[in-house]
Amino acid sequence: MYEAVRKARELYAAGEINWPAPAILALENKYQGSGLEWVILCAWIFLERNQVANQIRLIGWIYELDVAFDHGRSSGLKQKSEEIWFTPNRSLLQTSVCHMYEALFQLLERNIVKYQTSLIRAIRSMMHDPDVTSTGFSLIEEAFLRLHPSEDTTA
Question: How many domains does the chain have?
């Protein structure tokens, strides 16, 4: 499965717009919802290590998303996504969280194509945020390895 992350890294370096697709598809083939777990974990890792504008708000939103994900609740997800979307001076990291909410809503509604599209948008937005871009691709790989520690990254 790590080959999918390696492919995503190559596509990211080449500037391909859908660079996250190989990793998301590989994760989702393992079990449904694991792509969203990965994107959420990327956000948590980043926020643990960095100070950004609206950090408390971002942490709160991601915590609420985690709770909704754990309990399989779709109530309020669409509204929260729109609330975040229309936040004045919204950052790309906030846009990413907005797409995470949309992804969970689509997953729970069983609209897998829209779910995967929202995941791609979420991770792309996150990686285009100037604060996150400075971390390089290591954030993506670290989150993947935390979810799948037995993966061979040297092959």
Answer: 1
138-147 vs 2-13: helix crossing angle, rounded to 10: 170
Q: What is the number of residues in the chain?
A: 155
How do residues 67-122 score in pLDDT, each as one tens digit?
999 998 889 999 999 999 999 999 999 999 999 999 999 999 999 999 999 999 99
In the block, residue with structure tokens 């285009």: 128
For residues 24 and 11, give the distance between their C-alpha atoms in angstroms, rounded to a whole number.
13
Contact 126, 39 (CB under 8 A): yes
pLDDT of residue 1: 65
CB 139 within 8 A of CB 48: no
**Rg over CA atoms, the chain:** 15
pLDDT digits (tens, 9 = 90+) for 21-71: 999 999 999 899 999 999 999 999 999 988 888 999 999 999 999 999 999
Contact 86, 69 (CB under 8 A): no
The answer as to whether 6 is a domain residue is: yes
Give dist(CA 5, CA 19) in Å, integer.
10
Question: What is the domain extent for residue 17?
Answer: 2-147
In this structure, what are the phi and psi dihedrals at residue 109, rounded to the nearest 5 degrees? -85, 0
